[in-house]
Amino acid sequence: MVYNKASEEKKWKKWKQKEEQILKENGMTDDKILELRRYDWRDFNAERRFKKWQLTNYNFINQVPFTELKLPIRDMSDVIDQIEDENLYQVMIKAHIQDLVILYLKMYGYKNKEIASIMNISESIVRKRLSNIRKKLK
């Protein structure tokens, strides 16, 4: 399942308009309503960022048998925990799970096209993620 920001934002705006109408009817000042809107918008964006990364196909490892991928790990945290170089560890601990999975599959010899197919993303995204990882490591 992929997170649809536009759809969720539309729902949020509709909900917010109804809420603001009720607040106005009950005598809340415009300043307080604006303050509440800003707070709710920050909250919406924080939740959006969380859901964007959580509601994706990145947990494909649980869907594809390990024998097919030949991955001798339970999850990506096992890979990160084995890194001994402190600088590399600091980069990888902050990396997105998709970056880690792409990098891991690349290290196992998968080609960009194969990685894209496994992860259900485009090959250009795979290339871009690998490029970003290289930049961070320099």
TrEMBL record:
Alphabetized InterPro entries for the sequence: RNA_pol_sigma70_r4_t2, Sig_transdc_resp-reg_C-effctor, WH-like_DNA-bd_sf
Q: Where is the signal peptide?
A: none
- The superkingdom listed in its UniProt entry is Bacteria
In what residue span(s) does the RNA polymerase sigma factor 70 region 4 type domain sit? 102-137
What protein am I looking at?
LuxR C-terminal-related transcriptional regulator
